[in-house]
C-alpha cells in the first residue's frame, strides 16, 4: 500500500533534500508545494494525502496559522512541522495544535526517515535531543513551571473551532468589524455574530478583544 506525502516548503533545495531523504522509504508518492495557498489547493485536489511536511515560514503561512487551518480543514491528514525554529515553546504550540511530529531543518536523513515511519505508525515523533525536555512533549503540563500553561490551554482549545470559526477569529484578531467580516466571507452579519459567540464560548474568553490578543500570541513563533 502506497503512502502519499506532501512536502510544503518554499526552498527548492530543501524540498530536493527531503525527496532524496525519503527516496529509500518504500511505497511512497511525493507531492511538492512552495506556498501555503498552493498547499491548501493540493490538499483539496489530492484527498489521499496521508502525511504533510509543513514549513512554518513559507509564503502565505504566518506563524502557526497554517497548522491550525490545516488541522481544522483536514483533521485526518498527519502533519509534521519542519522549521529552523527549534525553541521548546514553538514545539509545544505545534503539538497543542495537532502536529504529529516536529523536525528541525538541521535533522539528519536518518531522523527524517525515522519521523516518517513513527508518525505513519500512529505515534508522535520528537527529536531525540528534546526527548528529556518535558515542556516540549505533547500531553504534558510541565509548562506550568515556565508560566505558559494558560497560553498552552488556549492553543489546545483552538482545535475545537470549525474552519469557519477559525477564519472569523483570524479576522477578529486583525481588527475587522462584524460588517467587514461578513463582507469578506460573503455571509450575513448575524451569522458572523453567531460564529463570534461560538468562538468566545469554545475558547473560554469574555470578549472579542481578549480572543484576538490570545490568538495572536498563540500563533506567534
UniProtKB/TrEMBL annotation:
Pfam families: GerE, Response_reg. Residues 154-219 form the HTH luxR-type domain. The modification 4-aspartylphosphate is found at residue 55. GO terms for biological process: phosphorelay signal transduction system; regulation of DNA-templated transcription. CDD domains: LuxR_C_like (cd06170), REC_NarL-like (cd17535). GO terms for molecular function: DNA binding. It comes from Alteromonas marina. Keywords: DNA-binding, Phosphoprotein. InterPro entries: CheY-like_superfamily, EvgA-like, NreC/VraR/RcsB-like_REC, Sig_transdc_resp-reg_C-effctor, Sig_transdc_resp-reg_receiver, Tscrpt_reg_LuxR_C, WH-like_DNA-bd_sf. The keyword Phosphoprotein applies. It comes from the Bacteria. Residues 4-120 form the Response regulatory domain. This is LuxR family transcriptional regulator. PROSITE patterns: HTH_LUXR_1, HTH_LUXR_2, RESPONSE_REGULATORY.
Amino acid at each position: 500500500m502506497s503512502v502519499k506525502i506532501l512536502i510544503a516548503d518554499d526552498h527548492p533545495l530543501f524540498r530536493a533534500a527531503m525527496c532524496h531523504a525519503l527516496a529509500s522509504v518504500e511505497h511512497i508518492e511525493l507531492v511538492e508545494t512552495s506556498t501555503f495557498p498552493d498547499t491548501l489547493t493540493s490538499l483539496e485536489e489530492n484527498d489521499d494525502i496521508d502525511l504533510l511536511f509543513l514549513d512554518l515560514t513559507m509564503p502565505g503561512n504566518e506563524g502557526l496559522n497554517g497548522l491550525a487551518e490545516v488541522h481544522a480543514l483536514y483533521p485526518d491528514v498527519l502533519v509534521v512541522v519542519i522549521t529552523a525554529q527549534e525553541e521548546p515553546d514553538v514545539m509545544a504550540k505545534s503539538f497543542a495544535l495537532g502536529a504529529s511530529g516536529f523536525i528541525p531543518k538541521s535533522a539528519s536523513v536518518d531522523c527524517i526517515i525515522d519521523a516518517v515511519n513513527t508518525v505513519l505508525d500512529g505515534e508522535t515523533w520528537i527529536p531525540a535531543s528534546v526527548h528529556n525536555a518535558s515542556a516540549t512533549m505533547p500531553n504534558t503540563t510541565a509548562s506550568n513551571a515556565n508560566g505558559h500553561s494558560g497560553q498552552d490551554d488556549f492553543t489546545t482549545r483552538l482545535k475545537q473551532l470549525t474552519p469557519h470559526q477559525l477564519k472569523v477569529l483570524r479576522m477578529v484578531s486583525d481588527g475587522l468589524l462584524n460588517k467587514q467580516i461578513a463582507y469578506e466571507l460573503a455571509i450575513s452579519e448575524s451569522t458572523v455574530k453567531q460564529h463570534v459567540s461560538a468562538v468566545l464560548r469554545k475558547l473560554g474568553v469574555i470578549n472579542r478583544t481578549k480572543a484576538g490578543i490570545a490568538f495572536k500570541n498563540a500563533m506567534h513563533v
